[in-house]
Structures are given as C-alpha cells and as structure tokens.
Specification:
By secondary structure, the chain is an all-alpha fold. Helices cover 77% and strands 0% of the residues. It has 11 helices and no strands. The radius of gyration is 19 Å and the shape is globular.
C-alpha cells in the first residue's frame, strides 16, 4: 500500500487528475484479474454462481458495492499524496479506516459477524485517530489546505473499512477471493469512468491526459499493488475481522510509508517529530488490538 500510494500520487500529478490516475489503476488491476480468473476453473465457476447468489438473497446486492470504497481510496491517493506525503496520508487513512472498522464490526457487516465494541477495541481506534492530529500539527503551513487534504484522506480510509467488509462477504459466499476482487474492480472502474465523463463535459476536455504516462510506464505498477491488496484483504478479513485486519495491515504499511518518504520524498512530505510520534501511537494501537485478540 505504501508503494502504491507513492506511485498513485505521482500518477495523479503527471496526468493532472487524481480520478484519471485511479481509473488507470483499476484498468490495470482488472485486466490482470481477468487473465487470472480465466485461467482457473474454480474461479470461473464462482463468477457464474454470482447471479444465483444475488437472486436467492444469499448475497445481498449491496455487498457488491465494495469497489466504490476502493475507488475513493485510490482517488484520494492521487489527489492528496502530493500535498501530504505518503506517511501522513497513511496515518490519516488509518484513522478513518480503524474508526469505521469499529462500526462495521459492531453491526456485523463483515464476514466474521457482529463483534462487540470493547474498551480495548475503542482504545485502539482512538489511539489511531489521535495520531492523525498529532502527526498533522507543527507542519508550518498554517493554512486550510492540509486540513482539507487530511479530511479527504480520512474519508478514503473510512471507505476502505466498508470495502474490506463487503469484499470479505463476497469472498465467503463464492469461495473465491479473486471473484470478490473482480466485482470490486468492475464496480470501482464503472464509478471512476462515470466521474471522468462528467468532468470531461463540465471542463470542456480538461479531465487530464494520459500522454505523460507513456514516458513513465512504471507508474502502471500501482494497479498490480491494488490487485494484490484487494485479493489479500478479501481472503484474510474473514478470519481477522475488519478492525484487526486494518491494524495489522497498518504495521506493514507504515514501515513502507516512512521508507518511501525518506528515499523518494514528494514535495509536500515532511518527516517531523510529531509525525513520528503519531506513527508510534498508531503502532501501540496495533499491539493493543492484537494482544486483546490473543
């Protein structure tokens, strides 16, 4: 996720449109996924079973909308990372993801069923949320731009909580995480293309350009990263629950995010003491949730 965030941030910058960058990601991921599913008999049979599962209400239709959350998240990467840096973007999305994960688990929207809200779970989510404000303070810009980008990143993280829950349910119903990913990419790409069409009309052709991508083909790797994340999420969230899944993913993401900002920083990236403290608090929330689960 950290590498994908860095790539998507630059892709959004060179195309001039974060939504266009997200659409490129989804197109690459969907193309790879179609090849994978076409080569596997169980996956093809699982795809064919989807209409029957929806008609029989074993799989409510609204569970097929998880891709909307992924589309919002990837769009957020393309729009906000250039201003925030990967590490701060990650902390902000974590706050949204963990906070909403409590709600998702509480009402049984994920594949593990309803999970009670305990003090340890609330404290873990609260620590992650508090980390956002600590990490964002002392940046020295003093304006509302960074706060607006932080809010956008927070909402993108919240959308990921619903995405993980819904895709996990589809994975359980079909027995194939790749099918959950396929639904995710089809729905997300449809939404992104619709938004792009509206932008194209409203701005008279000013919805961005793919021409710069021809000189930077490595920017397409973000689609592969997104595919790996969605498939892994659909497979593991059914065992971990949405909150614990979100926090465990964070442990790996933050290490990568700091490394990316140090090695190939964006213009808006700042490695400050407040940022490190915020990441440290988030790490404590991971440990608390895992310890409580054990």
């Amino acid at each position: 996720m950290a590498v994908q965030g860095r790539i998507n941030g630059e892709l959004g910058a060179v195309t001039g449109n974060g939504v266009l960058a997200a659409a490129v990601n989804f197109t690459v991921g969907l193309s790879l996924l179609v090849v994978i599913i076409a080569s596997r008999g169980p996956a093809r049979r699982a795809v064919r079973s989807l209409p029957g599962l929806v008609r029989s209400r074993q799989l409510p239709w609204w569970l097929l909308t998880g891709g909307l959350g992924g589309a919002l998240y990837v769009s957020g990467q393309g729009v906000t990372i250039a201003a925030l840096g990967v590490a701060l973007f990650t902390v902000a999305t974590v706050a949204g993801q963990t906070g909403l994960s409590l709600v998702v688990d509480r009402y049984g929207l994920g594949p593990t069923g309803a999970v009670p809200v305990t003090l340890a779970r609330v404290l873990a989510a609260a620590l992650a949320t508090t980390a956002v404000w600590i990490a964002s303070s002392g940046r020295g810009d003093g304006g509302g731009g960074s706060r607006a980008f932080l809010l956008m990143a927070f909402l993108a993280g919240a959308a990921v909580a619903f995405q993980a829950a819904f895709n996990g349910r589809v994975s359980v119903a079909t027995g194939e995480p790749t099918v959950a990913a396929l639904v995710n990419f089809v729905v997300g790409l449809t939404m992104l293309l619709t938004v792009l069409a509206v932008q194209e009309v409203a701005t008279d052709g000013g919805a961005g350009s793919l021409a710069p991508v021809a000189d930077r083909p490595w920017l397409l790797v973000g689609g592969l990263m997104g595919l790996l994340f969605v498939v892994t999420a659909a497979w593991t969230v059914r065992s971990l629950g949405v909150l614990l899944f979100s926090l465990v993913v964070l442990a790996g993401t933050l290490l990568g995010a700091l490394a990316v900002d140090l090695v190939v920083p964006t213009e808006g990236a700042q490695i400050t003491l407040n940022l490190l403290l915020g990441i440290g608090l988030t790490a404590v929330s991971v440990g608390l949730a895992v310890l409580r689960r054990r």
